[in-house]
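Hi P.,

Sorry for the delay on this. The queue was packed all week, but I finally got your sequence through. Input first:
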Amino acid sequence: MDRMQATCRARAGAGWRVALGALAALALAFGAPPARAQDEPPARVGRIADLGGEVFHAPEERASDWATVGLNFPVTSGDNLWVAQGGRAEIDVGAGQIRLADETNVHVSRLDDRAVALFVAQGRVIVRLRVLDAGEVARIDTPNTQVVLTRPGLYRVDVSPDRQRTVLVVREGEAMLPAQAGMQQVLPGQTATADGFDTTAVQVRNGVATDGFDTWSANRDRRYARASQFVSGQMIGAADLADWGTWESETPYGAVWFPTVATGWAPFRDGYWTWMTPWGWTWVDAAPWGFAPSHYGRWVFLGGRWGWCPGAFVARPFWSPAMVGWVGGAGWGLSLTFGAPVYGWVPLAWGEPFRPWWGNCSFRCWTHYNRPYAVRTEEQVWRNPPSRFQNIDRPGGITAVPGAAFTGSRPVSRNIVPVNASQIAATPVLGSAPGVDRPGAGHIPLVKPGTSNTPRPAAAYLPPGRNGYPASKPLEAGGSAQRAVTVTPSAPSSSGQRPATSMSGADKPGAGSPATREPYIAPPTVGAPVRGGAPPTTSTPGAKPAPSGSAQTLRGGSPTHQAPVQRDTLQTWPQGPQRAPPASTERRVAPPPTPSSSTSSGGAVAPAPRAAPLPAPQAQHAPGSPASAPPAVARPAAPPPSPPGGNAKPHAGEGGKGNAHDRGAGGQSQGGGDKPGQGR
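Then the structure:
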């Protein structure tokens, strides 16, 4: 008997090692992200694009304390997020969106140019993956299993509060789970359940459930389906531009976006500065549309108003902490008059170079930040800081605040120091961001875990060897774990199809070649404004989401905006008399910037077209987009259609009182009404 038990334990341990080996091989097949030159920061981050209720944030370097954050707050690798009871949040990562239900605790293991990896310690998460290029990895870790997303699609992962159960729902795409015999494949319309921790049993069944969380996610998907012809869909925040401004064509900039704002408005004046590792000082805009114009492109002053230029089309543009140039400091005459250091910034103009202030951006990195905006990409320009900024003389072109307000993440609009013409003429230009200490714990209101019903950050529950990399050993140290996999049979269909069974990770298609970036394309021109009329109205902010059913539907009515909760105060996006659209909507189509090797009067050269690159590895795109078929691979037949009541896609009206609707760009979403367990 003892010999038989020892044999069973040995076989179980061998099966577990096979599953882990297959998982590691699958992750490596998709390609480990190469090291960037000089450990450069990634060119992609996440953005809190929609929220309802309270959302707490704890960065990697201060993972023991929570701080409340609001709309447009950037998210990067190492961050922890907790959504309080009755709330919701959406994180836009460009290639897709990550949606969090209430009482969800998440650690962003990796978010960079090659990987999107999450660890869900508790709660419910929906991932809409729109683009998965060759060589990229997308994965969701939980306390008792790992989910590898192998195709663009729509996925949901629920983790029980005791962290003993993980439920995976695949509505679109394909996912893989570790199993005793290799990797368990989960196809669209299927639900996989992993129970237990030391001895995990995996069951797969046909059919999916729907609740209010799915309905809200479906409404958010419709918002991102409205693709813009002027900017890439992977530009974070671009989906909000159509509702808050108009596109026009101007020479030599190409397409220019003009926000619908009050008279006298200027960029980079309504928001605050925060510290974000490894970039340093980072701008957080208070406007619901303010993310993309603050972190990409250039600003120009045309016809008495500010316009934003997205520049040449880039499939995945480089994100920056803020597209500004720095002025002021302790030696500024204004600082001496004020009695304390005063720091200022100016929005960069067309053709002006952006100078990264984090110190480890190579010439190649600097080129990506500047080439799409007609900047001379020469090493001499790279090394020499400008002596003056073009927009400094424009109305509202320079914004200055006391050093204490700058480092304390205080609202800029309430702390602006007036600058007159003589002081502007004598303004010193800084080569980088102010060299002041980052805000300490005393400057930011913190919430200790355990207070305000907050748990420990998700990073505290992260098993060893799971910090964004494939596991090479069992999830918990201290011996082998036994795993069993079971596929629940369903009624046979007329075609005789059967549910998917497990398959080895070695049989999965992968791409080991790195993805190549698309060449730059000249900015598109616009014949007439895309949209006109008054902008959406702004509602008075509130501390909690609206009751169920009170949110306006996506189609019909004007979307509303609920202002984000800042770190130290409740900040409302200022409202004033709205500027009427131009009297005539007909405009002459301006030609795109003409490639030229000569230097213009402003010293800028329009971006020249580049030769097409060599054929790149085939990239995977979201369903419905043109793409080449993946390599043929032996896989089980697709599952039969779901029975009535198990629709793969939610529709309006499902979810009972948990039904919520989209509330427009930056508006807070309705929370509550869809507790864990509904719809299952």
